[in-house]
Write a structure and sequence with these properties.
alpha/beta; single chain; Spore Coat Polysaccharide Biosynthesis Protein SpsA, Chain A; nine-stranded mixed beta sheet; about 40% helix; about 300 residues
C-alpha cells in the first residue's frame, strides 16, 4: 500500500443503463476503509445519465475516469476499462454490486503476502433489500480458501463481479474473449472463459472468502431470464476450448452437465418446479451455446490493449 487508506490498485467497472446502481458502487469505493488509486468506468449506455453520476463523484483524492463505448457486450466494455487502467493490480466489480468496506484492503494484502498468485477471487453475497420478493442471483458463498492452478472447473474459481488480477497476467491473456458475456452473441460465460484461460496459462488463482462484494437481488422473473444465457455462455466457452484443441474441456462439459442434471433431478424429486424449470433452461441454453461455439470463428476477438502504468 502506497500510503494509509490507499491501495495502488485500479478498479475497472463496466456499466450499461444503470445510473443509480453505479452511484451506489462509486459511493462504496470512495468511502471504503482502503480506497483505490483510480476508478475507470466504461459506459455503454445510450444516454448520459451514468456519465453525470461519474462527474458528480469526481474528486481530487481518487482519479475517476469515464470512457464511453457505442459497442455492446460486457467483455468489450471490460476490455476497454482494462486498457485504460494504469496500476499493476486491477480489481473488477460490476455496476450492480457493492464491495465490502475492506474489499481493497483484503485484495491488497493477498497480493502482497502471496507473490506467486496471479489473481484473487472471493465471495458474492446477496445485497440486503427491503423487498422480500427479491431473490439472490449468482451468489458465491463458500468460506473455504482455495488456490486453483491448471486443472479446475472455472465456475468453482470465482465470479466476474469480484476478482482482481496482476497486470502481467492480464497482458498475457489479452483480456476477455469478446464473443462471450452478456450483450454478446455468446450471451454469457465471459468470466468463466477468462478464469479458464488464466489457469491454462499456468496462473494461480486464490479464492478467499474474506474478499467480498454484495450483488443486487432480482425479481424471480429476472432470475429466470438469466438462466438460459448462463448455460449458453458455458456451452459456448467449452466448444471454443475444444476447437482450440483442449481436450480437458470435455471433462468440464461432463462436470457441468452432471451438476445441472443433479439439480434438475433434485427439483423433480422435491416437487420444486421452479428449480426444475431453471435447470431445464440452463441445459437448453448449454446445448445452444455449444452449437454457437462450434460454428463461431477461430480467432479470439479482443480489443484489449496494454496500457501505461503508474507503478
Amino acid at each position: 500500500m502506497s500510503r494509509a487508506g490507499r491501495a495502488t490498485v485500479s478498479v475497472a467497472i463496466a456499466t450499461r443503463e444503470r445510473p443509480e446502481p453505479l452511484r451506489r458502487v462509486l459511493e462504496a469505493l470512495t468511502t471504503a476503509d482502503v480506497r483505490p488509486t483510480e476508478i475507470v468506468i466504461a459506459d455503454q449506455s445510450a444516454d448520459d445519465r451514468s456519465e453525470k453520476i461519474v462527474r458528480e463523484w469526481a474528486n481530487d483524492e481518487i482519479e475517476i475516469r469515464y470512457v464511453s463505448d457505442p459497442r455492446t457486450g460486457l467483455g468489450v466494455a471490460q476490455n476497454l476499462a482494462f486498457s485504460q487502467t494504469r496500476c499493476q493490480i486491477v480489481a473488477v466489480t460490476d455496476d450492480d454490486c457493492v464491495p465490502a468496506p475492506d474489499w481493497l484492503a483484503v485484495i491488497n494484502e493477498l497480493f502482497a503476502s502471496h507473490p506467486e498468485i496471479g489473481a484473487v477471487t472471493g465471495r458474492v453475497l446477496p445485497l440486503v433489500a427491503d423487498d422480500s420478493d427479491l431473490v439472490p442471483v449468482a451468489s458465491r458463498t463458500s468460506v473455504r480458501r482455495r488456490t486453483f492452478s491448471r486443472r479446475a472447473v472455472p465456475w468453482e474459481v470465482g465470479s466476474g463481479n469480484n476478482f482482481a488480477i496482476r497486470r502481467n497476467w492480464l497482458d498475457l491473456i489479452r483480456g476477455n474473449d469478446e464473443r462471450l458475456g452478456p450483450g454478446s452473441p455468446g450471451q454469457g460465460g465471459v468470466d468463466m472463459d477468462f478464469f479458464y484461460r488464466l489457469l491454462r496459462a499456468k496462473a494461480q488463482i486464490r479464492y478467499d472468502p474474506a474478499c467480498i462484494v454484495c450483488h443486487t437481488r432480482a425479481t424471480s422473473e429476472e432470475r429466470l431470464a438469466r438462466r438460459a444465457p448462463y448455460g449458453h455462455g458455458i456451452g459456448a466457452g467449452v466448444a471454443i476450448w475444444l476447437r482450440d484443441g483442449d481436450l480437458y474441456a470435455l471433462w468440464i462439459l461432463v462436470r457441468w452437465l452432471s451438476l445441472r442434471s443433479r439439480r434438475l433431478f433434485r427439483g423433480v424429486v422435491r416437487l420444486d418446479w421452479r428449480l426444475a424449470h431453471e435447470e431445464v433452461l440452463v441445459l437448453r441454453g448449454t446445448v445452444r451455446g455449444f452449437a454457437f461455439g462450434l460454428r463461431t470463428g477461430r480467432e479470439r476477438p479482443t480489443s484489449y490493449q496494454p496500457s501505461g502504468r503508474l507503478d
